[in-house]
Specification:
This protein is an alpha+beta fold. The chain has helices at about 1-15, 55-70, 100-115, 140-160, 165-175, 175-180, 220-230, 235-245, 255-270, 275-285, and strands at about 20-25, 30-40, 45-50, 80, 85-90, 125, 130, 190, 200, 205-210, 215. It folds into two domains: about 1-90, Phosphorylase Kinase, domain 1; about 100-285, Aminoglycoside phosphotransferase (APH), C-terminal lobe (Aminoglycoside 3'-phosphotransferase, Chain: A, domain 2, Alpha-Beta Complex). Strand 6 (about 125) and strand 7 form a beta hairpin.
Length: about 290
């Protein structure tokens, strides 16, 4: 009760509006999420984390606003942000539907098409609690190898989540990154951590994107992340996307390439079999 009272007081100070009630939101192991009912009739959600890394919530807020500006896939509005919390519009969760999945595919294509100034972002960010190097590089293959894969190969080896042989396999794939990457594409405006847990299927019939690691990247990256851990009506999403913005030939064969980064992040954060899965993905690319 004391924690909830403190959360309500924090939200009231940031929003300059009263909180009628608070309700814990299940799920999430990084932040504590609480639903708020406000005196002006609105619903909101506040995410809190004591002693969050510097800029943690600011980067998330920037990413949400940037994705929202694309006017493609739906993104909740940022109501307030501080070092210890983030307040967003409340999205009432519903059930996944094929119609919503089809709209998500088309809307995600529109978000990607909004583009980015470069591969990367102006500031480094986070994927979960893990650091996300974002300093730009001239091409996506260079950016992906240098900013996404190799830092996590080194970190996974240091944490004994990846063997030296597994690391060597991934490094061999990165040496061939230019031939593996497919046709050159301009920077896309991507979510960057688009697994099914970061989709909210709303009762309004739309799918809302949350918890981004947004940056200028390759549009196949978001699709690969959706495919890696599965998503409701995944094939409908992919088909609708491909109809709205046809993907380059061979895109499906490149999914393991784009999945290297999330698998390595999971290896660093959770260990287990993720390091081996990353090595297997690399091996499938180079034979």
């Amino acid at each position: 009760m004391a924690r909830m009272a403190g959360t309500a007081a924090r939200a009231e100070a940031l929003l300059d509006v009263g909180v009628v009630s608070t309700t814990p939101v299940a799920g999430g192991d990084i932040c504590t999420a609480t639903r708020l009912r406000l005196t002006d009739g609105r619903g909101a959600m506040i995410k809190t984390r004591p002693q969050a890394p510097g800029g943690f919530f600011a980067r998330e807020a920037e990413g949400l606003r940037w994705l929202r500006e694309a006017k493609g896939a739906k993104v909740p509005q940022v109501l307030a942000v501080a070092e210890d919390c983030l307040v967003l519009d409340w999205i009432e969760p519903g059930k996944p539907t094929t119609d919503a999945a089809e709209r998500l595919g088309r809307d995600l294509a529109a978000t990607h098409a909004a583009g980015a100034e470069a591969f990367g972002a102006a500031t480094d960010g986070f994927v979960g609690l893990a650091p996300l190097p974002n300093r730009s590089l001239p091409s996506w293959p260079e950016f992906f190898a240098s900013r996404r894969v190799m830092p996590y190969v080194r970190a996974a080896v240091d944490r004994q989540a990846l063997t030296s042989d597994e690391a060597a396999t991934i490094e061999a794939a990165m040496r061939r990154i230019h031939e593996l990457a497919g046709p050159e594409e301009p920077p896309a405006r991507i979510h960057g951590d688009l697994w099914s847990g970061n989709l909210v299927w709303g009762t309004d019939g739309d799918v809302w994107l949350i918890d981004p690691a947004a940056h200028g990247g390759h549009r196949e990256t978001d699709l690969a992340m959706l495919s890696l851990f599965g998503a409701p009506h995944l094939q409908r999403i992919l088909d609708a996307y491909d109809e709205a913005a046809p993907l380059a030939e061979g895109w499906h064969d490149r999914l393991p390439l784009h999945q290297l980064h999330p698998l390595l992040v999971h290896a660093v954060l959770f260990g287990g079999t993720y390091g081996g899965r990353a090595a297997a993905a690399a091996r499938s690319l180079i034979g």
